[in-house]
Amino acid sequence: MNEKVVAITGASNGMGLEAAKLFANKGWKVFAGARRVEKIPRDADRIVALHLDVTNTDSNHAFVTHILKEAGHIDVLINNAGYGEYGPAEEISMTKIRNQFETNFFGAVELTQLVLPTMRAQNYGRIVNISSIGGDVYMPLGAYYHATKAALQQWSDVLDLEVAQFGIRSVCVQPGGTQSSWGTIALKNSHSNMRENSAYQPLVDTVSAGLDRFMQRSVKASDLAEVFYKAATELKPSLRYLHAFGDKFMV
Ligand code: NDP
């Protein structure tokens, strides 16, 4: 039980990738999951790269089973896998809306349920849920993204009340604009999620330009990795770790 063990989802890019490297540098054993497993850096001693699709129950079970078999325990789970499905609320297909919730919300829920029995037995654990400043504030075209992050935060807070008695904490990190593929994907989605001759075209143009400017002011993914680490290791954590708007504002 001496070696600290962290599981990080969405570790093939952006903040998850930077967090995997940071925890490894600090001597943790890192179990890093993503669909593009080949993008996860391999480090035989410190980073174990595992294929993971958080929308798939079998994949989630295999991920946690592998970790517990190899490491025997788990200190921290970082639910980071996520993306933003941007576009007019009226026009995004139900399939895309469901996938947004499967990835950003249900994936985190299922993985957490799978690690909690072990964390309770250890009488220690930390669940770090990567929400967004968008879990509190919102803008047009982000209805389903914001809804997933708001849901994640409420769920995380309730979970914290329930599991604190077992020495486990559940906290959220709320990044603002951060350099990754997120901004590009959101911009692309806002256009691809539009019906031909959409009544929302002017709004999409306006919001896309705003989002573009917002992302130009973004911080580095490695900055957020530091916040993930703080959220995972602080003794008396706040339930929220806000790091937004390039101001490095943190509560
Ligand atoms: P990136 O797009 O750079 O990385 C997202 C990661 O999530 C990738 O490693 C991707 O891996 C993984 N992922 C996506 N879907 C799945 C899936 N079904 N199963 C497993 N892994 C998956 O994003 P960021 O680093 O920017 O985002 C990380 C988190 O931070 C997200 O939850 C995002 O919502 C949040 N966030 C981001 C902000 C930003 O400005 N960048 C702002 C606020 C919050 P792969 O495709 O290989 O599976």
In terms of topology, how is this protein built?
Blueprint: E1 5-9, H1 14-25, E2 29-34, E3 47-51, H2 57-71, E4 76-79, H3 94-122, E5 125-130, H4 143-163, E6 168-175, H5 182-192, H6 201-216, H7 221-233, E7 240-243
Parallel strand pairs: 1-2, 1-4, 2-3, 4-5, 5-6, 6-7
Helix pairs in contact: 1-7, 2-3, 3-4, 5-6
The structure holds NADPH dihydro-nicotinamide-adenine-dinucleotide phosphate (NDP).
Organism: Lactococcus taiwanensis
Protein name: SDR family NAD(P)-dependent oxidoreductase
GO molecular function: oxidoreductase activity
Description:
This protein has helices at residues 14-25, 57-71, 94-122, 143-163, 182-192, 201-216, 221-233; strands at 5-9, 29-34, 47-51, 76-79, 125-130, 168-175, 240-243. It has seven helices and seven strands. It is α/β, with parallel strands linked by helices and 251 residues long. It has a single domain (5-243), classed as Rossmann fold (3-Layer(aba) Sandwich). The site of NADPH dihydro-nicotinamide-adenine-dinucleotide phosphate has 30 residues, from α1.
Classify the beta-strand content into a percent band. 15-25%
Any idea of the CATH class? Alpha Beta
Kindly report the name of the CATH homologous superfamily. Answer: NAD(P)-binding Rossmann-like Domain
Shape: globular
Order of helices and strands: EHEEHEHEHEHHHE
**Main β sheet profile:** 7 strands, parallel
InterPro entries: NAD(P)-bd_dom_sf, SDR_fam
Pfam family, one: adh_short
Keywords: Oxidoreductase
Protein name: SDR family NAD(P)-dependent oxidoreductase
